[in-house]
Specification:
- The protein is an alpha+beta fold.
- Helices cover 20% and strands 22% of the residues.
- Strands 1, 2, 3, 4, 5 and 6 form a 6-stranded antiparallel β-sheet that branches.
- Strand 5 and strand 6 form a beta hairpin.
- The N and C termini lie far apart (39 Å).
- The mean pLDDT is 88.
């Protein structure tokens, strides 16, 4: 950062933050861990990284069942071939899921917020996941709230 030399030299000019221009991130809750598959690959990867153990985890629903994603592989370029949230491939390397403008590979997945999950390939076998199934995408207002970018959505607006 351009400010580091000034800090080290002790010449940094300090100024107060304007409280009228500030906003606050609400206290995070486990419900805020919902994965928005409509985001770019690096955003989804970093979301999972930020919410993995010891935190409550990133999650999504597949076929009506809650699934926790504990780890993904660092994204590389793989053009998205399906709709965001769609399982594109299941292999020994993991479970590839379409996201906005690409895909991510899930590497550790589980069915509980209290466990570290399984190798994604093993999870897919046990769960019965198949190519073409699609993880649910949250409503835009719920996704924004989960990132601290909007008010908490009304509960009676239907599920994500």
């Amino acid at each position: 950062s351009a400010n580091v030399p000034a800090i080290l030299e002790g010449s940094m000019v300090m100024r107060s933050q304007d409280p009228t221009a500030a906003d606050y991130l609400p206290k995070r809750t486990p419900a805020m861990g919902i994965i928005d598959w409509n985001r770019p690959p690096l955003d989804v990867h970093n979301w999972v990284r930020a919410l993995t153990h010891p935190y409550p985890g990133a999650f999504s629903d597949l076929e009506g069942r809650r699934v926790w994603v504990w780890a993904t592989e660092p994204p590389t370029f793989h053009p998205g071939q399906g709709q965001p949230g769609e399982i594109l491939e299941i292999s020994s390397g993991g479970v590839r899921v379409a996201v906005q403008a690409g895909s991510v590979v899930l590497s550790r997945v589980g069915d509980s917020p209290n466990a570290g999950g399984l190798d994604a390939h093993e999870w897919a076998r046990q769960f019965g996941a198949v190519v073409g199934q699609r993880f649910d995408n949250p409503r835009p207002d719920l996704a924004a709230w989960s990132r601290g970018e909007g008010p908490k959505p009304e509960a009676n607006r239907g599920s994500p």
